[in-house]
Every structure is written in structure tokens, then in C-alpha cells.
Amino acid sequence: MSALQAIQQQMLQAVLAEKAPPTNAIRSDDIADVESRLAIYRHGYRIRLRDALRTEFSGLQCMAGQRFDALLDKYIDAHPSEHYNIRWHGSGVAAFLAYARPWRDKPQLAEMARLDWAISTAFDAANETSVGMAELSSVPPDAWANLQLLMQENLQLLGSLYNIDAFRRAADNGAPRPRLRRFDQAHQVMVWRKGTTVHYRKLDPDEWPVLAAAMRGEPFASLCVTLAQHHDESAAMPRMVALLQGWLEAGLIRGLATV
Amino acid sequence: MSTCPAPSSYANNVAMAMTSTTSSGALPYLGYGLGLRVEHYESLLANPGQVEWLEVVSENYMVSGGLPLVWLDRFRERFPLVMHGVSLSIGSTDPLDDDYLARLAALAQRIEPAWVSDHLCWTGVQGVNLHDLMPLPYTEEALDHVVSRVKRVQDTLKRRILLENVSSYVSFADSQLTEWEFLAAIAERADCMILLDINNVHVSAMNHGFSSLDYLRGIPVSRVHQFHLAGYEEGEKLIIDTHDAPVSNAVWDLYVEAVRRFGRVSTMIERDDNFPPLAELMAELEHARQLAEPLLRDAA
Questions:
Q1: What are phi and psi of B64, to 5 degrees?
Q2: Range of the domain at B151
Q3: Which one of A5, A7, A45 has the shortest CB-CB distance to B130?
Q4: Inter-chain touch A45–B131, beta carbons under 8 Å
Q5: Is residue B22 scored above 70 in pLDDT?
Q6: Domain A128-259 carries which CATH code?
Q7: Do B237 and A36 contact (CB within 8 A), yes or no?
Q8: For an interface test with A, which of B128, B177, B186, B273 has the most A Cβ atoms less than 10 Å from its Cβ?
């Protein structure tokens, strides 16, 4: 190991540790002792990561309340940052909450973190174009069965048993913390970006299997079969039209193809 | 991703800047600028005042799409831009991050900045990023290491970069050179330029007990191409480079000395936190102009 490597590794350990191990590598003088000097870097590391995570996880902050800072500190201790962009330190928060005690006993926290992170990643995901009604209307009737709806790459579906969207909405709007609700069955929250604005909403029970099928690239005929499991024949058709109109309006479809 | 076409106003700004080069060579003189921050996006577009150029934090725009790049393109239409990174980690003993360099190069290609800068420091090692500007020991080994990496970065970007002096709170027993000797040697041997942060010179001088004037005198005039001006916070024993306060009187005094030594150098106010209304930063920038221009006129 070179002398430069050794110094950098000592500094790394000194910044990550609660208290610096003794080192002769750093000069002490009348202005300040080594511990006071290292403390500035150690304090700065934690503050910067906390600030970055606070920005990305506003829904989690709303849900965790006073426990939020302790949660962040434990995460920072357990997971040193690895990405050059400090924001990306947030990529492991949901997984951490899902396995680490005591938070794994409150699965709503991991679900909340997943929603916050999905919103964060959609914010600066690649730009995509959207298909409009005119383009969809121009598809010949006999081509619809094999029509493939190419959905936005930034579209994400998140399963949840809790009203996580309500917490995020409260955080976004500066509204009071909502009451936690646990549903009997998991529902899906959709996250996507239209233009430069990130959106999220809870999906209706009949919508998410159809949307998930579209995201898997299944043809339109297959989407109709999926929707028919929730509606009789007379109701399925107008419901599919409504879903398509909603997806077009939300800018969810980036292109059309044939299977 | 396509490159935004340069409107005529921007093209004119760049053309004017390119015709008034300093002794540093091909890099343009841009005048008096600000660091671009989200907090001032709208007010700066609505009232650019006497702000002549903007410095953008590279990493904030090394993204795939979305709102950050929309804003960046808007500012690119109105101002000459320079790119300022915080994560190159030029002094780390970890390998240079090829993905980072590729994204940096792509951003430079997209916005065609007047120049690209980062810091003379390391930000992480062993795969861990400390998100801080960690100082180096001023040794021959570190010098060789940084020089070789600067050359590689400059080859990748196909341009000379500027390296900025950082504020520091530790110094190393192994150091054989002063900070200014180290910075000057890197600039000469790697053929890169220097972004001199006047506040950082003052902060480090106070924290390590050296003379800030010795520092200025040790930096080759021909290598300095940009000044940063910023504020700091008084700690119990050390002063902390927060960049979240107005420029102090001590730093203004040192800026005057820097203008006397280095002459006409593109200058900007860098505020990273505790953001005041834009007008306050513009007033600081105007103060810099009022301090520098009489000296430059007298020297001419």
C-alpha cells in the first residue's frame, strides 16, 4: 500500500468512526488538536447525507415523525455512501427498512420509502414522448388485437398494504400527518412523469392488472381478457375505453407497436 | 440527447468573451458571475441584472432528463456557462470513475461550457464516497498521482480543466510542500488552470496558521483563471468553510490583493446554503466589481 493510500484509508476510517482512532499522520498544533479537526469532517459527512435523504424522503419523514432522524442515522451508519451523486445514497433506504430492526416490524416504512424513491428517480429519468389520441385512433380496427402499447420507461407500479400515497401527498402539500390505514388487500400505486412533473396515484383494482400486462408488452387482446376478469362483457368495453383515455391523458403511452 | 441550439444572444456573449482572452490562453474572460442554484432560478431569469455568467454544479445536471435539464437549457440561452464539479475526486487512490467521466463529457458536449472545473482533493476511497473535499498530503507521491490523473481527465474531456483549492481542517505530517507549492506544481506539470477560491485560501490560512499573502504570491499568475468569493462561519477553534454567509471583510481584503496580483480574472460569488434573496448576491457581486475595476483600470 502506498503512503497516499494509507493516509486516505486512515482518513476514511476517522470520518466514518464515532471517534477517531489515534493517528500520527495528522498534524496537531496550537490552533486545534487532531480530534477537533477530524470532528469537522465527521460531522459534515453525517449532516450532508441527512440533508440529502431528507430531501428525497419527505413521505417517510411525514410517516416516521420524530423517529425519522434516528432512522436516517442508523441507515447512514450501516450503509456508507458509494455513489458520486449524494442523492443516490437514498437507493438503499427501502431495502434497509425492510430488513433492519426495529423498522422491519413496521412494513409501512419500507413501503413509504419505496414510493419516495420511485418519485425521486422519475424526476430526472430520461425524457420520453407520448402518444396522443390521434395516433391511437389511426390504428386500423383489424390491427387492435395485436397492438402493443409501449408504456413510459419511467412508469413504476408499487404494491402496498398502507395508505402511503396519503402520507406523500400530505408532505407535498404541507398538510397535517394523515392517520395510518392498513388495507385488507394490497393495492398498487403508480408513479410516472408527464413532461417535467412527477405524478402518483392509487390504481383501481381492475386497472392495475391491465396496466401491468401492458407494461409486460402483452397485446391489446390480452389486456381485454385481463379486464374481462373484473367486468361482464357489456361493462368491459366502456371501461377499457375509459382506461385508455386516462392513460393517454396521463401521457403513459410512449409508442405503439405490433406483436 | 440533442444539443440545444445556441440562440444569437448566447452566441454573441460567447463571441465577445472569446475575443477578450487573458494571459492564460484560449479560455475566455467572462466578467462577474454567480453560482447557479435552484433557489434563484426564477428570479435570475426574470432579472439577470449585471450577472454576466453562471457557474453550474456539474453533478446536478448529469442526469438523463427531466426538469434539471429544462432549466439548464433556459439558462444556457441567456448566459455563458461554466461547469464546476464536486465529485471528480482527482486525488483519490481509487481508479477514476469512467461512468462519471463519460457523463461529465456528455454534459460538456451538451452545454459547451466556457470551461470545466473541479477541486484539488479526494472525495472518497475504497468505494466509499464522503461527499466532502478531503485534503491531500503535499508530497511528491501525491503530486505524481494527481498530475497523471489530471492529464487523463483532460484527454477525456479534450480540454484543460481548472482545479480549485479547497478549505481544509487537517494537514499531514508527511507533507513536504506548502499547499500553494503543491497547487502550482500540479498546474504546471499537468498543464491545467487554477480556480482560486479566495475564501478557501483565507479559511485554510487561519486554520493552519500560514500567510494568505504568501499563498497568493506562490501561485503563478498565468495559471489563475477564475476566482470564487464566499463566506464562512467562525467555529470554536477553527473557521468553517460553509459558503452560507456573506463574503467577510477579511476575504474582501484578500480579493483586492488577488486582483492586484492576478489582474483581470473571471470572478463569482458562490453561495451553497442559507440562500438570501438574489438581490443580496447581486449586491455582493457589484461590490466585487467596484473593488476590482479601479485597480484594473489603474494597472492598465
A1: -80, -35
A2: 8-274
A3: A45
A4: yes
A5: no
A6: 3.90.930.50
A7: yes
A8: B128
Quote the CA–CA distance of B240 and B178 in Å, as a whole number: 20
Mutate to test the interface with B, among A29, A33, A40 (most CBs of B within 10 A): A40
- Contacts of residue B207 in chain A, CB cutoff 8 Å? 31-32, 37
The ipTM (two decimal places) reads 0.91
Lowest mean pLDDT segment, chosen from A104-113, A117-126, A200-209, B2-11 = B2-11
Q: How many CA atoms, within 13 angstroms, populate the side-chain half-sphere of residue A130?
A: 17
Distance CA B47, CA B51 (A): 9
Taking contacts as CB-CB distances below 8 angstroms, the residues of chain B near A128 are 65
CB-CB neighbors (< 8 A) of A9 in chain B: 125-126
- Can you tell me the distance from the alpha carbon of B88 to that of B97, in angstroms, rounded to the nearest whole number? 8
Q: In sequence order, which residues have a C-beta less than 8 Å from that of residue A217 and are 6 or more positions away?
A: A148, A150, A259
A123 vs B contacts (CB less than 8 Å): 66-67
What is the C-alpha separation between A84 and B130, in angstroms, rounded? 9
Whether A240 has a pLDDT exceeding 70, the answer reads: yes
> How many other C-beta atoms can be found within 10 angstroms of the C-beta atom of residue A146?
13
- Nearest CB among B128, B141, B207 relative to A3 is that of B141
Residue B288 lies inside a defined structural domain of this protein: no
Per-residue pLDDT at A20: 65
Q: Is A161 on the interface with B (CB under 8 A)?
A: no
A133 CB burial (10 A radius; 0-12, 13-18, 19+): exposed
Say yes or no: A82 contacts chain B, CB-CB below 8 A.
yes
- Cell 412523469 appears where? A193
| Per-residue pLDDT reduced to its tens digit, A85-141 | 999 999 999 999 999 999 999 999 999 999 999 999 999 999 999 999 999 999 999
Q: Do B139 and A4 touch (CB under 8 A)?
A: yes
pLDDT category of residue B2 using cuts at 50, 70 and 90: very low
SS3 A205: coil
Q: Map out the domains of chain A as residue ranges.
A: 128-259
Cβ atoms of B137 and A1 within 8 Å: the answer is: no
Contact A81 B128 (CB under 8 A): yes
pLDDT digits (tens, 9 = 90+) for A3-41: 999 999 999 999 998 776 667 889 988 999 999 999 999
Q: Who contacts B246 (Cβ-Cβ below 8 Å, separation ≥6)?
A: B231, B276, B280, B284
In a domain, B1, yes or no: no
CATH of the domain at B266: 3.20.20.150
Contact B66 A27 (CB under 8 A): no
